[in-house]
TrEMBL record:
EC code: 2.7.1.71
UniProtKB keywords: Amino-acid biosynthesis, Aromatic amino acid biosynthesis, ATP-binding, Cytoplasm, Kinase, Magnesium, Metal-binding, Nucleotide-binding, Transferase
Naturally occurring in which organism (per UniProt): Acinetobacter pseudolwoffii
Subunit structure: Monomer.
Lineage of producing organism: Bacteria, Pseudomonadati, Pseudomonadota, Gammaproteobacteria, Moraxellales
Family under the similarity heading: Belongs to the shikimate kinase family.
Pfam families per UniProt: SKI
Superkingdom, taxonomy of origin: Bacteria
Designated name of the protein: Shikimate kinase
Amino acid sequence: MPSKEFETLPNLYLVGPMGAGKTTVGRHLAELLGREFLDSDHEIERKTGATIPWIFEKEGEQGFRDRETAVINELTSRPHLVLATGGGAITQVLNRNYLKQRGIVVYLYTPVEIQLQRTYRDKNRPLLQVENPEQKLRDLLAVRDPLYREVAHHIIETNQGAARDLAQRILNLITSKN
């Protein structure tokens, strides 16, 4: 049940690269708002009964992106939600439209060095299973950063403060402008 104080706020959507802390910050933000928290990647896995690496392997990246768009369309149609999206969700025009038009989008900007620290041992990230993960993160950010900025209503840097502090900063930012 959403907090009465925040029930008129639109849905909140967190975008950003792998390792930005979207899921962790999103959980704290949902708690502060008294809202449901969902992660689009977790929802894809729940609905398909398969892991994201398995989907990538069997269906390719486009097969995964098609599933992701269907899930984002469904989730952004629900009320009183905080949603963390996958790092590449913004590569699809439909996803950017759903997010921007159906809620407040916050881009969690994270430098590559911090992304690398946070994702270094994570085998559940198919795009990082390459010889040079740092270069892959740099290449992804070069392509995706303009898209994150295009869709975002607000940009928060994640290299300053703990996840709970970032959630509070986001809440202060969105409530001061509404």
